[in-house]
Design brief:
By secondary structure, this protein is an alpha+beta fold. The chain contains 5 helices and 15 strands.
C-alpha cells in the first residue's frame, strides 16, 4: 500500500494538455512569433506550445491569470476566437496544424516553491480558426476538480508526483469509483528541473458502493486510442469500500498518456477518461526526462 500524504504542491499547467503528445515541432522563432503577436494584441501573459501527433500538429495557447478568468464565458469564447485567428495568421506552418486550443488558467505561487494552477476553460478550433463543433463544452468543462500534485520529501530526497480528483464513476465524496496515479522520483522535481523516470507507476483504485462492485480478482485493461497498451489483473479488497493497488511499468504509463483518448477497463466496465483527467495524468510526465 502506498503511503498517504496531503500534497501541497501543484504543477504549473502551462503545458498541461500538450506535455507528452509527441515531438515538439515549433522552433524557438516560430514560438516567439506567435507569442509576440498574441502579446501585442491582448497585452497579457501568454504561453504557447505545439506538439506533433500522428494526424498533424496541435497548437496550445494559455492566457495566464487573464482578467477574463473572472468574466463571462461569452467573453472568454470571444477572446479564444480572436486568439485562434492570431495563431492562424502568425504561424508560418499553419497548414500542418490539426487543432488550435486556447485556454485560460489561474496560476499562484506560494512560498516560492509550491504552486497552484487551475484551468478555467479551454476552447478548440481547427487550423482555419473555426470552432470545433460540439467539442469544447463537452470535452473541456468537466465538473471534476482534477489536479496534478508534486511535493518534495527532503528527509528521503524524493519527489512525489500524482494526479488527484480522477472520478471514474459517481460523485466526489459519494458512491463511485476513483483512481489516483502516483509515482516517486529520486531528487527534487520542479518546473525547471526534470528527473530520470521511475521504474513503475502505482494506480490506487477505490470503489464505494452499497454492496461490493468488483470481484476480488479483476482483469484491468488500459486502452489508448483504441489500442490495448496494458492488460493485467488487480485484487480488490473490502466490501462496500473496496481498494486495489496496482503497479505498472512506467513505459506503459507513458504510452497510455501519449494518446488522445484513454479507457480504463475494470472487468467488463469501461471508464473513458475525460480530456482534463487524461491531461492531468500526462502532466505528471512533465517532471520526467525522456
Amino acid at each position: 500500500m502506498l503511503p498517504r500524504r496531503t500534497f501541497l504542491a501543484l504543477i504549473l499547467v502551462s503545458a498541461l494538455l500538450t506535455a507528452g503528445c509527441g515531438e515538439i515541432v515549433m522552433s524557438f522563432g516560430d514560438l516567439l512569433a506567435v507569442q509576440n503577436a498574441l502579446t501585442k494584441k491582448f497585452g497579457e501573459e501568454v504561453s504557447v506550445t505545439a506538439n506533433a501527433g500522428p494526424n498533424g500538429t496541435m497548437v496550445v495557447v494559455w492566457f495566464v491569470n487573464s482578467p477574463l478568468n473572472d468574466d463571462s464565458a461569452e467573453q472568454r469564447v470571444l477572446r479564444a476566437t480572436e486568439a485562434a485567428d492570431v495563431v492562424k495568421n502568425s504561424y508560418s506552418r499553419i497548414q500542418n496544424v490539426r487543432e488550435i486550443w486556447i485556454g485560460f488558467v489561474r496560476k499562484k505561487t506560494r512560498l516560492v516553491v509550491f504552486h497552484h494552477s487551475e484551468i478555467v476553460a479551454v476552447h478548440g478550433f481547427d487550423k482555419n480558426g473555426t470552432a470545433l463543433p460540439g467539442r469544447k463544452e463537452k470535452r473541456y468543462q468537466p465538473p471534476e476538480d482534477v489536479q496534478v500534485n508534486a511535493s518534495y520529501d527532503s528527509s528521503n530526497k524524493v519527489s512525489d508526483i500524482s494526479a488527484s480528483g480522477i472520478q471514474l464513476e459517481g460523485r466526489p465524496g459519494g458512491l463511485g469509483v476513483t483512481v489516483l496515479p502516483f509515482f516517486k522520483l529520486k531528487g527534487y522535481a520542479r518546473g525547471d528541473v526534470k528527473l530520470p523516470p521511475p521504474k513503475t507507476v502505482d494506480f490506487n483504485f477505490a470503489s464505494y458502493a452499497e454492496k461490493p462492485r468488483f470481484k476480488q480478482t479483476v482483469p484491468i485493461t488500459f486502452v489508448a486510442d483504441n489500442k490495448v497498451v496494458l492488460k493485467t489483473e488487480g485484487d480488490f479488497n473490502g466490501n462496500d469500500a473496496q481498494f486495489c493497488y496496482l503497479t505498472i511499468p512506467y513505459p506503459a504509463f507513458r504510452r497510455m498518456v501519449n494518446g488522445q483518448e484513454l479507457i480504463i477497463k475494470l472487468g467488463e466496465k469501461e471508464y473513458p477518461l475525460t480530456p482534463s483527467q487524461l491531461a492531468a495524468m500526462r502532466g505528471m510526465t512533465t517532471y520526467v526526462t525522456e
